[in-house]
What we know:
The chain is an alpha/beta fold. Helix content is 34%, strand content 21%. The longest helix is centred in the C-terminal third of the chain and has 13 residues, at 137-149. It is globular, with a radius of gyration of 14 Å. The mean pLDDT is 91.
Amino acid sequence: xxxxxxxxxxxxxxxxxxxxxxxxxxxxxxxxxxxxxxxxxxxxxxxxxxxxxxxxxxxxxxxxxxxxxxxxxxxxxxxxxxxxxxxxxxxxxxxxxxxxxxxxxxxxxxxxxxxxxxxxxxxxxxxxxxxxxxxxxxxxxxxxxxxxxxx
Length: 151
């Protein structure tokens, strides 16, 4: 299993969002820092709580000039339903083959498709902060916002 550390270059990728529109990380960071959060599965209680907390802090992320991007192994259609049901104001990317999860060291072969992890990525594609917690759902958005505000 690949591991990635703070200070490393973020692996670039292109994946479809919940509307099927391709999104490339290297293009997204041109608009400012990106908080990329991997979650195991749409519509599950923990992932819903985590994604909704990222939504609820939207004004704070926007004020800091930071983009939020969710990513899971769910198909585009499921991401679309998840986003619509909870009125998410940020893209949800579909990594069905889990190749991006593997490049970030969060792909799993048991229990869930990916580990719950959040990466704060600056405009130079450097990973500035990594947050991992499988049980503290609010921790990801809270710590990512604090880390990104300084960028």
